Structure formats: C-alpha cells, structure tokens
Amino acid sequence: MSPLSITFYTKHHCPLCDKAHTILEELQEEIPMKIQKVDIYRSDELIEKYGLMIPVITVADEEIQYGQIHKESLRKRLLTINK
Questions:
Q1: DSSP-derived 3-state class of residue 70
Q2: Is the CB of residue 69 less than 8 Å from the CB of residue 57?
Q3: What separation in angstroms does the CA of 4 have from each of 25, 27, 52, 78, 80?
Q4: Span 72-80, mean pLDDT?
C-alpha cells in the first residue's frame, strides 16, 4: 500500500486545527500517509477558499473533511481511498 498524500489546510491559533492534526497523526499509525500542512494565510486565494471551513483535509484535491473532524468517519474514508 503506497502512502496517501494528505493536504491539511490550517492556520495558527486554531483549536479545531490542532485537534484535527492530532487525529491525523493518530490515524497515520495505522494508515500510511504523508501529511503536508498548509497555512491558509500563505495566500489570499486559500483564505478566500478555506477561511470559513478550516481545518480542511484533502486527498488529490478532493475535500475529504472540514471543520469539525470526526476520527471514525475520516478513518473509513481514508481506508476506502487507500484500497
């Protein structure tokens, strides 16, 4: 199984983002994945696109989950993608 390439859109001082990152790290122990953190404040385009949604988890430019991240549903989705 090759590792999934996850893009994790986040920003500083975001409790939901911190919780989501912890969930991703926990899932990384059982699902091979590379996590690329992207601060949305790096570009106006990202702020406009994700400003009200963060944290946002994407795989191959598809939004998998955003906002309140739920570990079990995220696990199921990632396992489905990684088949």
A1: coil
A2: yes
A3: 13, 12, 25, 8, 11
A4: 95
pLDDT tens digits, residue range 11-59?
Answer: 999 999 999 999 999 999 999 999 999 999 999 999 999 999 999 999 9
C-alpha distance from residue 71 to each of 21, 25, 76 (Å): 11, 11, 9
Q: Name the strands in the sheet holding 62-66, side by side, starting at the edge strand that comes first in the sequence.
A: 33-39, 4-10, 56-59, 62-66
pLDDT band at 82 (very low <50, low <70, confident <90, very high): confident
Strands 4-10 and 33-39, bridge-based pairing: parallel
Which fold, 4-81? Glutaredoxin (3.40.30)
Domain regions of the chain by residue span: 4-81
Query: Whole-prediction pTM value?
Result: 0.93
The residues pairing with 7 across neighbouring beta strands, listed in sequence order, are 36, 58
